[in-house]
Write a structure and sequence with these properties.
Two copies of one chain form a homodimer. By secondary structure, chain A is α+β, with helices and mostly antiparallel strands. The first copy, chain A, contains twelve helices and ten strands. At the A-B interface, strand 4, strand 5, strand 6 and helix 10 of A face strand 4, strand 5, strand 6 and helix 10 of B. Chain A binds a DNA duplex (30 and 30 nucleotides) through residues 24, 26-28, 38-42, 44-45, 47-48, 58-64.
DNA sequence: GTTAGCACTCAACTCGAAGGAGTGCTAACA
DNA sequence: TGTTAGCACTCCTTCGAGTTGAGTGCTAAC
């Protein structure tokens, strides 16, 4: 069977109506509120076809229809083609350039959650491809060095390095100069074994120390120990019974608090980014099983070169995709603006 | 009317039973399961008295009794007097000395939540009374300095300071020496206007810079911008219907995510610490209105000198106070041990 | 191909009866 | 005087029956 123009119209009408009301949609409603001028009986026939094709389904025999995951997928896909999403006016939007990345991210998450009334999450930009701007080793006490690493985007990382042998002030200074001249401007990916070996050689007596320091620098930059993710508006999920009935709320709240799993979703989204930076996961499409009744819309943002992170909005499958995508577009561009001034 | 020994026994029996079952307790249950050897009728009379005195109440006419807030308060108070809580064996306890405070705190919160099956929160130790161990200013670029401040407990803070006038390498070095010699070993509270003025004078040309730096140091140390609080096991609240019915879950989840309000609770707990470090807030006693159906048990912990923080456990009023208090005691002492080795 | 009409289905709601846990009160008992 | 047995009463909870209404599928006519 083919999805002809009329079927498409009816399918879209069903979905739109369901998004608005959250109730199963009957044939009569469609017949009345569309410009198709068809009787409910005709609609019924078409709807039976659409059900057979898997786009919609009935919760029970004598109920209206609701979109299936496949239906939502169709809707989102055609919606994405049709028009370039217009940007959405954000309420209470106050994004200021922050020295502290953390503050900015929390702000963004909050703004997004408040505007959409869904749950929002945001990941700190990954810094693998970030250039090292500044490295400094200082002596905290005879047994410990403090490593401070600043990478592009003014993200600062610290690490305390225990050292076996003492090191003189003079040597420490040399080491600092060495590190800065050799590593400055490199990305973490570029700091490979060859460079490390060369460094060790040049460091001479303190060659063994170099290894520790490089490890510390690596640690500091990758920050993988714990995916830095901020959430906001988790409690918005309580607006949607389909997400909170039957103890589902507990699982979701857990997922949002633990953040571990959110990381995998963000990873996935970064890897499969199509180009617009916006992706929609419906139900099982997301790699998190507690979100099987949710839809997730993710957007990749970029703060300067190579600083990529992901914003995600989690809501019920019947979320207002249009608005959500618009909001994310707006945020994307605002963030872009914000960091272009750098 | 007086609360004689028998009434106390009955009251405790009612509460203990209710804590176990979560169901209103009838006179017959008490008569059967206590060693009082009284008939249910007698118990009924006593229970009527206890109700009149405000210790217990009836959800409806023909139901058993449940403890009132006043009843819980009595129970907790006598329980605290009676015996020194014994320490509780913790499951999956693995606290390692962490360089990163953050990791340690998250660990603690998780362990506590998992062991008690309630929601847990923990605040980073306040650093107002912490001694400055190390200060360093470095030049990031001509317009920005990077201030790194390490305080006792190896907590590292960074701050980027924009500067108006350029500063020579030599002067920067002098400034660093000045800052370290003058501020080292002082607590934030001790760095007062007098010291700042003296510093400015000594800094000479860069006097104005000193002000900025001190502010940055202050900023870095107080970290009040956002109370650093970590939570774990928020979803445990879903185990208790009385906390999640009627949309209460949403409020609570919000409170836990926003953390703002948790800060006030932790503040309150630090200020009114009696000495044991353990406090119990029942219902309205806690300064957070979304927790009016909860009990909160807080414990002050200390990591080395002056590094005080608070752990809190939030659960239903019918929480297992005995176990919760025991768990907190255990954590308190483990943390103490951990940092005594310093 | 479209539509009107009709029988059918099924969730949701209402209502009342039955069940049961627990109380308060009274009167008898030690 | 304190304790207890007994009983009537209350009120929540559960369950099933009946009702309603939205919506469907099918058929026959247009």
């Amino acid at each position: 069977m083919e999805l002809d123009e009329r079927k498409k119209k009816i399918l879209k009408a069903v979905i739109r109506n369901y998004l608005e009301t959250g109730e199963p949609v009957g044939s009569r409603t469609i017949s009345k509120y569309t410009d198709l001028n068809l009787s409910s009986a005709t609609i019924r026939n078409e709807m039976a076809d659409l059900e057979e094709m898997g786009y919609i389904l009935q919760p029970h025999t004598s109920a209206g229809r609701i979109p299936s995951d496949q239906g939502y997928r169709f809707y989102v896909d055609t919606m994405m083609e049709e028009k370039d999403r217009e940007f959405v006016e954000l309420k209470e939007m106050l994004l200021e350039r922050q020295d502290k990345m953390e503050t900015l991210l929390k702000q963004v998450a909050k703004v997004v959650a408040q505007n959409t009334q869904y749950a929002a999450m945001i990941s700190a930009p990954s810094m693998h491809r970030n250039k090292v701007k500044f490295i400094q080793l200082s002596r905290l006490n005879p047994e410990q060095l403090l490593a401070v690493i600043v990478v592009e985007g003014n993200v600062i990382k610290n690490n305390i390095i225990p050292i076996a042998d003492e090191i003189s002030d003079e040597n420490l200074l040399k080491l600092n100069i060495l590190l800065n001249t050799q590593l400055n401007g490199l990305t973490m990916e570029e700091i490979n074994l060859g460079i490390i070996a060369a460094l060790k050689q040049q460091a001479g007596v303190h060659g063994s120390l170099i290894g520790e320091v490089i490890d510390a620098v690596g640690d500091a930059i990758k920050a993988d120990d714990d995916p830095e993710i901020y959430t906001s508006g988790t409690n918005n999920i309580f607006r949607y019974p389909e997400l909170t009935d039957n103890g589902k709320a507990s699982e979701l709240v857990g997922t949002f608090e633990e953040k571990q799993q959110l990381g995998s979703l963000i990873q996935e989204s970064l890897e499969t980014d199509p180009g617009t930076g916006i992706q929609v996961y419906i139900g099982d499409e997301a790699p998190i099983k507690s979100m099987k009744d949710c839809s997730v819309v993710t957007a990749t943002y970029e703060l300067g070169e190579g600083m990529k992170g992901t914003i995600g909005i989690v809501g019920p499958k019947r979320m207002d995709y249009d608005k959500v995508i618009g909001t994310l577009r707006t945020i994307q561009s605002k963030l872009d603006e914000l960091y272009k001034k750098e």
